[in-house]
Write a structure and sequence with these properties.
Layout lengths: L7 H10 L2 H8 L3 H15 L4 E3 L4 E3 L1 H29 L3 E8 L4 H14 L3 E8 L12 E5 L8 E14 L1 H7 L13 E2 L5 E4 L6 E4 L9 H9 L4 E5 L4 H6 L3 E2 L7 E9 L7 H13 L16 H5 L7 E3 L2
Helix pairs in contact: 1-2, 1-3, 2-3, 5-9
């Protein structure tokens, strides 16, 4: 397939070096190849660009004007390439981000705000909601999602884990005791989402368990408030209730069976390479998530959970599904 630029580089080289032989040496090609490319260019344009004699090569009047235009285009291309390289080093532009607002608006928004502080040339537009957005159709750059991924047409970067703990107020535990296992949950009041289910780690990945309770909500904030008020046990992300755990308003059940670790993903549209600004955000998000399964007792003080969440680690994109 013939490109509009075919023969032009050879033509420019002949003009600037003064001969087909010198142009061939400059381009690392044969003299016959350079001559053929220039001749094909003249045929395609329907004009004579060069006057050839046995001693020298010179431009026609049309050739002079054509050379000047091609030289300017090549300079513009070089400038555009340099500008693109600079953008890789100094990110600018805009990122449109989708968050699931059940648990992560405060935590993730704070992380993205920190990113914006570090890269002032990048504009951020954050959308929070419970629905699954159409990344491509709605022009989102990235969405934060948890658990199993289904859409194989998108790309995903694993940014860590969202680790859930089972927790309750001291008053509730004093009255009802601490559950000893999953089977014991039937003897407890459990605060849940609208499905009435909790999840637990298992050898197969995750175990879904139906729980009973008189308080349900599709918002993590409502479940957290109910747990602090002593209405029952809640299963909530450790990062989401770290302040309540640190203050003692909530107490975590510290048996390993009671935890659930859901993978955290940044989902984005396919394309190679990943744009520089998006790559920076992916790495930044990963640096603020726990890359291991988080537990409250991993720190001598629950107040240090924020430090634990700030562990650095880069991410590699992988296909969804």
């Amino acid at each position: 397939m013939i490109s509009i630029w075919d023969g032009i580089e050879e033509y420019i080289s002949v003009v600037e070096t003064g001969s087909f032989t010198a142009a061939a040496d400059q381009l690392g090609a044969s003299k016959s190849f350079v001559s053929k490319r220039v001749s094909e260019l003249e045929t395609r344009l329907g004009v004579q660009l060069l006057k050839r004699t046995t001693r020298q090569v010179s431009m026609t009047a049309i050739g002079e004007r054509f050379y000047a235009s091609c030289r300017d285009m090549r300079r513009s291309l070089a400038a555009a390439s340099h500008e693109a390289a600079q953008m890789q080093q100094t990110p600018t532009g805009k990122l449109k981000v989708s968050l699931n607002d059940t648990f992560d608006v405060n935590f993730i928004s704070a992380v993205i705000a920190d990113f914006a502080c570090q890269y002032p040339g990048v504009g951020i537009e954050v959308h929070a909601g419970s629905r699954e957005v159409d990344l491509i159709g709605e022009d989102f750059d990235v969405a934060i999602r948890y658990g199993d991924l289904i859409d194989s047409s998108l790309r995903a970067a694993r940014i860590g884990y969202l680790s859930f703990c089972m927790c309750a107020s001291p008053a509730y535990l004093a009255e009802h005791g601490t559950p000893k296992g999953i089977a014991d949950l039937k003897n407890h009041i459990c605060l849940s989402d609208l499905t009435g289910h909790w999840w637990f780690n298992s050898t197969d990945g995750a175990e879904k368990v139906r729980v009973n309770g008189r308080w349900k909500s599709n918002k993590g904030a409502a479940l957290r408030v109910a747990a602090v008020r002593g209405l029952g046990l809640a299963q909530l992300p450790i990062a989401f209730v770290r302040s309540e755990l640190a203050s003692g308003a909530l107490v975590a059940v510290e048996d390993e069976w009671s935890y659930y670790d859901r993978e955290a993903w940044a989902i984005f549209a396919p394309g190679t390479p990943v744009p520089a600004t998006l790559r920076l955000l992916l790495d930044f998000l990963s640096s603020r998530f726990a890359r291991t399964q988080l537990r409250p007792w991993m720190q001598t003080s629950l107040a240090e959970l924020d430090v634990f969440l700030a562990g650095r680690s880069a991410v590699e994109p992988e296909a969804v599904g």
